[in-house]
Amino acid sequence: MKRLGWMVALAALGVLEFTEAVSTQAALGAGAAWAWKPAIQTAGDGQVHVQPIRDNIYLLVGAGGNITVSAGDDGILMVDGGTAPMTDKVLAAVRSISTGPIRYLINTNEREEYTGGNEKIAAAGETIPFRPNQTIQIQGYIGTNRATVVSYLSVYERMSAPTGKVAPRVEGAWPDATYSTPQKKLHFNGEPVLVMHQPSATDGNSLVHFRRADIVSVGDLIDLTSYPIIDLAAGGSIQAMIEGLNHLIDMTVPEKQSEDGTLVIPGHGRIADQPDVVYYYEMLSIIRDRVQDMMSRGLTLQQVHAARPTRDFDTRYGRNTGAWTTEKFVETVYQSLKK
Questions:
Q1: Which of 116, 168, 226, 310 has the smallest count of CB within 10 Å of its CB?
Q2: 175 and 155 in contact (C-beta within 8 Å)?
Q3: How many CB atoms are closer than 10 A to CB 49?
Q4: Does 102 reside within a domain?
Q5: CATH code of 246's domain
Q6: Total of domains in the chain
Q7: Mean pLDDT taken over the chain
Q8: Does residue 63 lie in a domain region?
């Protein structure tokens, strides 16, 4: 599939002769800064903000990772739940949308900024009853006092622990409806909802596609505020990220002038569409190819750092502070390709 031609040319430039000057954001001058670093709307005021998206789908911003909410006659379905300290504000934001029961909480991966609210959100919800509760035994078996927490199997395995081991998360936070097939299918609030296994930042990432609204919630597959946080120990890799983005491009359909159409909810940052996904795909592909080329020429990790393979994108995605810096990202790409 052909992507953005000028970006392919840029990748080739970086691979063939990395000592040549490359047109970076800084070189374009302040007047062209908008073309490289559009404002990414994120909430940093300690509050959870509600943004209607399309039909009955909403976005909650400010609780850690982005949260997608479907609200309708069947109740509430949430994709990710934010961090534990923000859970009360998340629940208040959900209640500002609907007073219906929280039926499902889908975890796109196991990171705390997506699953920190699991225990309290699940406890605030109700399982969809399959039959009228006529006895205490049936009521206890159905467990209507808890929302169903859905995830890929490996997410559950990392949040729990084998017998005799200490689990990293309390049992109330564990997913209780895991899947290990390519996808799990739901029908909720009048539309099909596909939960699809897509290895990327870890080997247990899920994409959630609301088919009627044509909205895809993708978790850590895309972070419009940063280079992706790839967890090698959890089975993530740069190649899996690129393959996942390629799959997402195939799923999405642009509307007029390549805008709108299928909407994508990233783990962080504003709502995206197919051109945004393509740009992120091309960015990671270029960086992977540059690092791979340097490794094939025998460059060490220190030499790769010195060559700055991400320099064309650092103004938009780079970080010099915090737990996930540009240097840490490049090291992870290097180690991923080394494997």
A1: 168
A2: yes
A3: 15
A4: yes
A5: 3.60.15.10
A6: 1
A7: 87
A8: yes
